Amino acid sequence: MQQRTQGTWVIILSFFVAYLLAVVPFPDWAMNYRPQWVAMVLIYWVMALPYRVGIGAAWMAGLVMDLLEGSLLGLNALALAIVAYITLSLHQRLRMFSSLQQSGVVLALVGLHLMMTHWMKIAAEQAVASNLLFLLGALSSAFIWPWMFVLLRQMRRGFGVR
After folding, report:
1. What mean pLDDT is predicted for residues 82-101?
2. Are the CB atoms for 66 and 73 separated by under 8 Å?
3. What pTM does this model have?
């Protein structure tokens, strides 16, 4: 029981750090390049521990992200739940992929997350239709993924999260 509780705190701590990184101020010119930290942490934990972190955890993570961003409640929650569902359906295959192949999947999943949130903001009239530069965040997330994967895996193994 102690180890399971400890593992839960490691997962929560990793999401907390992702939230902090998600709200760090960037200059205006670099906002489109911001990696999607919460989505990447979610993808990792769903892939590594699909029986502990799933669609419900993704929904909660998205609600917290909505509160932090001050966006429409449920916007990120729905997008992250769909990302978690896709990751759950592919988690055994993703584990066998090389880090380059995983980066490609992260590019697609984070790009889906960004597109869904952008479309929902347009539908809710919180944003205007613009160019596709907002998808550059998916590219930077895919670039960072191999290092983030190694860091989270070492943290999971070091603390014995199961």
Report:
1. 96
2. yes
3. 0.93
